[in-house]
Design goal:
The protein is mostly helical. The protein has a domain of 194 residues. It contains 21 helices and 2 strands. A two-stranded antiparallel ribbon has the order 1-2. Strand 1 and strand 2 form a beta hairpin. The radius of gyration is 22 Å and the shape is globular. The model has no long low-confidence stretch (mean pLDDT 90).
Length: 497
């Protein structure tokens, strides 16, 4: 790449540069200006600076016109810009949920890692080169490993961080080996260059091995079965704010880049998973992973007594639903997938926001500890019901429309396909199963009596405002889905995917 090429690359990376500079400003201010302040004041100042930096990055994204170039290392399209803006908004919410947290005294470092992870996500969704994709994933992953173990007083947090790191290192090895095979096969590191080689030799054995390696590597990132083993321990052991970050923004970025690698990089090697005629390709692989995720995630969630572990297995199940969008691999299914993962992230952030309050009062994340929560905190209980019912797909919440849009886009991809029909039937059946364990939580909240030893629950006003905003967003996007969907459909079409 020549000097002009580097200049163009830096011009496109201004939002990421703003986020990284903000991260260092946060640490400098925390160590110098707020060194003697209380932990609460330090968190408030760090969150304010971090959120302001994210707002500045959003403004930079919206203020300049994108440069349409699909062949460079980093692309700048309306689609990538909208996804990046969504990631920044999710990061702002995670930071706001951190106000008042007491799990660490290293406030500046915590916000620094959140912002560096966000920078990794921003680079990731714009990457069109294997090296850029891998480096961005590692920047994101290293931040998440440390954030998972940030509660030094909790042995469970350290254990979760170590497991996350070990499983993550293994998945990175699979992904890197798959990428090296792709380079050897295509003599190119760009997705467009790989796609040209795939069209010439769609059934090359090296390509098949690389495809499996890529599915293993990205399957870990999205917590799809059978690559999900890290998720329950990480969701349970990480600080609430770290778990919320892992379960929201990182999922959006991972699902998006996974779709791009499979649909753009492996274009021409889709194969077929027809019930009557199956051909090798990445579609049959993802059909198997999707089915395994839906079945294992929902059935394992039934047995959980911890709300965090329930949310982890629920995430596995939702990964199975979202993989159906990959099987369809159309513009409509991509728009549906993005709508699904964004609304899922909002609801999940809301659940972890409520958990941050209840764990502080109860001392654990057990479902039984939520008994009688509706009498102790009516507003939080109402918001929790909105989040869980949305995740279950109950109308008129956004989760219902997300599933409806995704399932109909899958059926429309190949009218008359019995395989797609049965996949959607399985997904609907598993959604009914998920309703059981979500309602089990709400039964504790609204029906069970308050436990005698339950302490009075005092929720911070600011935290309730953030949680209320998330609940209102989930309800609004369900009642008026076009607010987000029209923008997604427009940018997907404009980007030519």
């Amino acid at each position: 790449m020549d000097v002009m090429g580097y200049g163009q690359l830096l011009e496109r990376a201004w939002p990421e540069i703003i986020v990284v500079l903000t991260a260092f400003v946060v640490v400098a201010c925390d160590l110098v200006a707020f060194r003697r302040a209380t932990a609460g004041a330090r968190f408030g100042a760090a969150v304010a600076i971090g959120a302001a930096g994210c707002v500045g990055a959003v403004w930079k994204l919206m203020a300049s016109a994108p440069v349409m170039n699909q062949t460079s290392m980093m692309v700048d399209t309306p689609l990538t810009r909208l996804v990046q803006a969504g990631l920044l908004v999710l990061t702002i919410v995670v930071l706001l949920l951190s106000v008042g947290a007491q799990f660490t005294e290293h406030v500046g470092e915590f916000v620094l890692l959140v912002l560096l992870g966000t920078a990794g996500m921003l680079f990731l969704v714009a990457a069109q080169d294997l090296l850029a994709i891998f480096i961005s994933l590692e920047l994101l992953s290293l931040s998440l490993y440390i954030l998972t173990g940030f509660d030094k007083a909790s042995p469970r947090s350290a254990e979760a961080s170590l497991k996350y790191f070990l499983f993550g290192g293994m998945s990175a090895a699979f992904l890197l080996f798959g990428f090296s095979l792709l380079y050897g096969f295509s003599h190119s590191t760009t997705l467009s260059g790989i796609a040209m080689a795939v069209h010439e030799q769609p059934h090359n054995p090296i390509l098949m091995v690389a495809m499996v390696m890529a599915v293993v590597g990205f399957g870990f990132k999205i917590a799809a079965a059978p690559f999900h083993f890290w998720a329950p321990d990480v969701y349970q052991g990480a600080p609430v704010q770290s778990a919320a970050f892992i379960a929201s923004g990182s999922k959006v970025a991972s699902f998006f880049i996974f779709f791009q690698v499979m649909v753009l990089g492996f274009a021409g090697a889709e194969g077929s998973a027809s019930l009557t005629r199956m051909t090798s390709g990445w579609v049959p692989i993802l059909v198997l992973v999707s089915c395994a995720s839906m079945l294992l995630g929902n059935l394992a969630a039934i047995a959980q007594m911890s709300l965090r572990r329930l949310m982890a297995y629920s995430a596995v199940a939702h990964a199975g639903y979202m993989l159906l969008g990959y099987v369809a691999h159309t513009e409509r299914s991509l728009a549906a997938l993005l709508y699904y993962v964004v609304t899922y992230s909002l609801a999940t952030l809301g659940v972890f926001g409520v958990l941050a309050v209840t764990e502080k009062a109860n001392g654990d994340d057990s479902i039984s500890g939520l008994s009688g929560l509706s009498r102790r905190a009516p507003f939080l209980s109402f918001c929790l019901a909105i989040f869980l019912l949305s995740l279950a797909g109950i109308p008129p919440l956004s989760g219902f429309f997300a599933k409806f849009l995704l399932f109909t886009s899958v059926l429309a991809a190949a009218p008359g396909s019995m395989l797609l029909l049965w996949l959607v039937v399985l997904a609907i059946g598993m959604s009914a199963v998920s309703l059981f364990y979500y309602l089990r939580v709400l039964k504790r909240v609204y029906v069970a009596d308050v436990e005698a030893q339950a302490a009075p629950l005092r929720a911070p006003v600011f935290g309730q405002v953030v949680i209320g905003f998330l609940a209102a967003s989930v309800a609004l996007l369900g009642c008026a889905p076009d607010l987000l969907l029209n923008a997604l459909v427009g940018v997907v079409r404009a980007s030519g995917l």
